[in-house]
Every structure is written in structure tokens, then in C-alpha cells.
Amino acid sequence: IYFSVRASRHMAVLPTCIIMIMVAFYGILWGTGTSVEEATELGWINKTVEAPSWSHTWDFLKIDKVVWNVLPSQTVTLLAMISVVALSSSLDIA
Question: What proportions of the chain, in percent to the nearest 5, are helix, strand and coil?
Fold first, then answer.
């Protein structure tokens, strides 16, 4: 991908490379006679997982894992980030 982008500075290079990688992957599966189910069992494709309900997203928040004593030293950084995001958002609107 790196050499393709360097050789041809066109906006379609990256999407074309991504599509070609997918075509090559499924072409290799077809060429070897491997089904998608077999590839999934072998770990080449992720297994489908049911998405949790939107109301259960807070179940992943672990307040006890937060290192609270570091928070005061990050106050300036936090305020700077909020300012940059606010400025960036206001420039997008204008």
C-alpha cells in the first residue's frame, strides 16, 4: 500500500488497495477450497458476536479501575483538549 501511494498520488489508491486485498483473500479461499465457515473456525475470520443492548453499555464502565490521583495533574491537558475541540467545532459550523 505504501509503495502504491508513493507511486501514484491519487485518491483512489487506498480504496483500490483495500478492495484488492479483500478480493485476494476470498480468491485464496476459493482457490484452496476453503469455505467461509472453515476460515472462521481456523481463526482467519472473526466469529459473529451479538451486539449488546444499548442499555448495557454502562456495564463496561469500571470506575474502580480509574487512577484518580493522576486526574489533578491532567487538568491543564484536559482543559486544553476541551478548548481545541470547542474551537474546532465552532470553525466547522462557521
Answer: 70, 0, 30
The rounded distance, in Å, linking the Cα atoms of 23 and 15 is 12
What pTM does this model have? 0.51
Q: Position 20: which residue type?
A: M
- For each of the chain's 94 residues, which pLDDT tens digit applies? 788 878 888 888 989 999 999 999 999 999 999 999 999 999 999 998 888 788 888 888 899 999 999 989 999 999 999 999 999 988 877 6
Please report where in the chains the cell 481463526 appears, as a residue. Answer: 43
- Which triple of cell numbers denotes residue 91? 470553525
The alpha carbons of the chain give a radius of gyration, in whole angstroms, of: 23
Scored b (16 or more CB within 10 A) or e, 8-20 reads eeeeeeeeeeeee
